[in-house]
């Protein structure tokens, strides 16, 4: 059996950087992450064993001992940032620099009076964070048909940004459609390079394998997108969180297995999958 492992599988720069910041911050003061630092239970549990607590709402700070709040790579809104700053708690800023660039972009565009179109999942924390830096009307769309719901006005300039992990092909389709409209639309290329490379590599591998395994949390937006991209190319694509949930007998009769993983999948999990797939031969 041949295994083709994506070079881009596993932690991206932003997730790696955020995790390092949490470990570097460990000391005498309590550390709180605003939301799980990554979509991986094992990593979150390991950090919990070192005293790192996850909070889900900033109101929780009102009854917690003072410490530092970690802003994860997805980033947060300006209001939330101001709330933490005024709470008396310290802040460990681990927003991915690529996400921070989008915050600055929409903030600057808003100051010019431009309206913002965010292409992404309206419930994703990165998108709600970006929305929170806009001071003008914001439209959040995630498919082409939703363009028709935007009340375009020829007196308004629209700036478009995408969630960093959005499907590149779909973003391009949406941009082509937006450019065909007779309105002033400024496009910003904000899908991160790491995501683009991961998606392109996954697509190429999925085209040439019998079975494709995509490893990562079922809550991880970038892993779900990887799965969707691979599934279009390879009928036998499986999204798994760990090897325990995968029926190895599915591999029987197949000779080439592709493996990729989302941006918050630890190397250890990827290695476990590879060694189990090898042993299944
Ligand atoms: S996927 Fe890209 S933008 Fe998101 S955290 Fe990783 S490097 Fe940053």
TrEMBL record:
<keyword id="KW-0408">Iron</keyword>
<keyword id="KW-0411">Iron-sulfur</keyword>
<feature type="binding site">
    <location>
        <position position="192"/>
    </location>
    <ligand>
        <name>[4Fe-4S] cluster</name>
    </ligand>
</feature>
<protein>
    <recommendedName>
        <fullName>4-hydroxy-3-methylbut-2-enyl diphosphate reductase</fullName>
        <ecNumber>1.17.7.4</ecNumber>
    </recommendedName>
</protein>
<feature type="binding site">
    <location>
        <position position="222"/>
    </location>
    <ligand>
        <name>isopentenyl diphosphate</name>
    </ligand>
</feature>
<feature type="binding site">
    <location>
        <position position="124"/>
    </location>
    <ligand>
        <name>isopentenyl diphosphate</name>
    </ligand>
</feature>
<dbReference type="GO" id="GO:0019288">
    <property type="term" value="P:isopentenyl diphosphate biosynthetic process, methylerythritol 4-phosphate pathway"/>
</dbReference>
<feature type="binding site">
    <location>
        <position position="221"/>
    </location>
    <ligand>
        <name>isopentenyl diphosphate</name>
    </ligand>
</feature>
<feature type="binding site">
    <location>
        <position position="39"/>
    </location>
    <ligand>
        <name>isopentenyl diphosphate</name>
    </ligand>
</feature>
<dbReference type="GO" id="GO:0051539">
    <property type="term" value="F:4 iron, 4 sulfur cluster binding"/>
</dbReference>
<feature type="binding site">
    <location>
        <position position="74"/>
    </location>
    <ligand>
        <name>isopentenyl diphosphate</name>
    </ligand>
</feature>
<feature type="binding site">
    <location>
        <position position="221"/>
    </location>
    <ligand>
        <name>(2E)-4-hydroxy-3-methylbut-2-enyl diphosphate</name>
    </ligand>
</feature>
<feature type="binding site">
    <location>
        <position position="96"/>
    </location>
    <ligand>
        <name>[4Fe-4S] cluster</name>
    </ligand>
</feature>
<dbReference type="GO" id="GO:0050992">
    <property type="term" value="P:dimethylallyl diphosphate biosynthetic process"/>
</dbReference>
<feature type="binding site">
    <location>
        <position position="221"/>
    </location>
    <ligand>
        <name>dimethylallyl diphosphate</name>
    </ligand>
</feature>
<feature type="binding site">
    <location>
        <position position="220"/>
    </location>
    <ligand>
        <name>isopentenyl diphosphate</name>
    </ligand>
</feature>
<feature type="binding site">
    <location>
        <position position="264"/>
    </location>
    <ligand>
        <name>(2E)-4-hydroxy-3-methylbut-2-enyl diphosphate</name>
    </ligand>
</feature>
<dbReference type="InterPro" id="IPR003451">
    <property type="entry name" value="LytB/IspH"/>
</dbReference>
<feature type="binding site">
    <location>
        <position position="222"/>
    </location>
    <ligand>
        <name>(2E)-4-hydroxy-3-methylbut-2-enyl diphosphate</name>
    </ligand>
</feature>
<feature type="binding site">
    <location>
        <position position="124"/>
    </location>
    <ligand>
        <name>dimethylallyl diphosphate</name>
    </ligand>
</feature>
<keyword id="KW-0004">4Fe-4S</keyword>
<feature type="active site" description="Proton donor">
    <location>
        <position position="126"/>
    </location>
</feature>
<feature type="binding site">
    <location>
        <position position="74"/>
    </location>
    <ligand>
        <name>dimethylallyl diphosphate</name>
    </ligand>
</feature>
<keyword id="KW-0479">Metal-binding</keyword>
<feature type="binding site">
    <location>
        <position position="12"/>
    </location>
    <ligand>
        <name>[4Fe-4S] cluster</name>
    </ligand>
</feature>
<dbReference type="GO" id="GO:0051745">
    <property type="term" value="F:4-hydroxy-3-methylbut-2-enyl diphosphate reductase activity"/>
</dbReference>
<dbReference type="GO" id="GO:0016114">
    <property type="term" value="P:terpenoid biosynthetic process"/>
</dbReference>
<feature type="binding site">
    <location>
        <position position="220"/>
    </location>
    <ligand>
        <name>(2E)-4-hydroxy-3-methylbut-2-enyl diphosphate</name>
    </ligand>
</feature>
<dbReference type="Pfam" id="PF02401">
    <property type="entry name" value="LYTB"/>
</dbReference>
<keyword id="KW-0414">Isoprene biosynthesis</keyword>
<dbReference type="GO" id="GO:0046872">
    <property type="term" value="F:metal ion binding"/>
</dbReference>
<keyword id="KW-0560">Oxidoreductase</keyword>
<feature type="binding site">
    <location>
        <position position="264"/>
    </location>
    <ligand>
        <name>dimethylallyl diphosphate</name>
    </ligand>
</feature>
<feature type="binding site">
    <location>
        <position position="222"/>
    </location>
    <ligand>
        <name>dimethylallyl diphosphate</name>
    </ligand>
</feature>
<comment type="pathway">
    <text>Isoprenoid biosynthesis; isopentenyl diphosphate biosynthesis via DXP pathway; isopentenyl diphosphate from 1-deoxy-D-xylulose 5-phosphate: step 6/6.</text>
</comment>
<feature type="binding site">
    <location>
        <position position="74"/>
    </location>
    <ligand>
        <name>(2E)-4-hydroxy-3-methylbut-2-enyl diphosphate</name>
    </ligand>
</feature>
<feature type="binding site">
    <location>
        <position position="39"/>
    </location>
    <ligand>
        <name>dimethylallyl diphosphate</name>
    </ligand>
</feature>
<comment type="function">
    <text>Catalyzes the conversion of 1-hydroxy-2-methyl-2-(E)-butenyl 4-diphosphate (HMBPP) into a mixture of isopentenyl diphosphate (IPP) and dimethylallyl diphosphate (DMAPP). Acts in the terminal step of the DOXP/MEP pathway for isoprenoid precursor biosynthesis.</text>
</comment>
<feature type="binding site">
    <location>
        <position position="164"/>
    </location>
    <ligand>
        <name>(2E)-4-hydroxy-3-methylbut-2-enyl diphosphate</name>
    </ligand>
</feature>
<feature type="binding site">
    <location>
        <position position="264"/>
    </location>
    <ligand>
        <name>isopentenyl diphosphate</name>
    </ligand>
</feature>
<feature type="binding site">
    <location>
        <position position="220"/>
    </location>
    <ligand>
        <name>dimethylallyl diphosphate</name>
    </ligand>
</feature>
<feature type="binding site">
    <location>
        <position position="39"/>
    </location>
    <ligand>
        <name>(2E)-4-hydroxy-3-methylbut-2-enyl diphosphate</name>
    </ligand>
</feature>
């Amino acid at each position: 059996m041949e295994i083709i492992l994506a070079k881009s599988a596993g932690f991206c720069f932003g997730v790696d950087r955020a995790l390092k910041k949490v470990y570097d911050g460990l000391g005498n003061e309590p550390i709180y992450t605003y939301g799980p630092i990554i979509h991986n239970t094992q990593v979150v549990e390991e950090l919990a064993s070192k005293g790192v607590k996850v909070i889900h709402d900033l109101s929780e700070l009102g009854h917690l001992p003072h410490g530092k709040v970690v802003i994860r790579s997805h980033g947060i809104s300006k209001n939330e940032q101001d709330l933490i700053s005024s709470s008396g708690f310290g802040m460990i800023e681990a927003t991915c620099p690529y996400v921070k660039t989008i915050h600055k972009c929409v903030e600057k565009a808003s100051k010019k009076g431009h309206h913002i179109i965010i292409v992404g999942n309206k419930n994703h924390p990165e998108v709600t964070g970006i929305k929170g830096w806009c001071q003008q009307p914001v439209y959040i769309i995630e498919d082409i048909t939703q363009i028709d719901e935007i009340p375009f006005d020829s007196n308004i300039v629209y700036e478009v940004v995408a969630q960093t992990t959005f499907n590149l092909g779909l973003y391009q389709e949406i941009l082509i459609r937006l450019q065909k409209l007779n309105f002033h639309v400024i496009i910003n290329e904000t899908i991160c390079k790491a995501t683009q490379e991961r998606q392109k590599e996954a697509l190429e591998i999925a085209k040439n394998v019998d079975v494709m395994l995509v490893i990562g949390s079922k809550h991880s937006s970038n892993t779900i997108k990887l799965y969707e991209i691979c599934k279009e190319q390879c009928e036998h694509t499986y999204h798994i969180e760990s090897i325990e949930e995968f029926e190895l007998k599915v591999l029987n009769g197949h000779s080439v297995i592709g493996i990729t993983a989302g941006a918050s999948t630890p190397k250890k999990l990827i290695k476990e999958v590879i060694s189990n797939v090898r042993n299944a031969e």
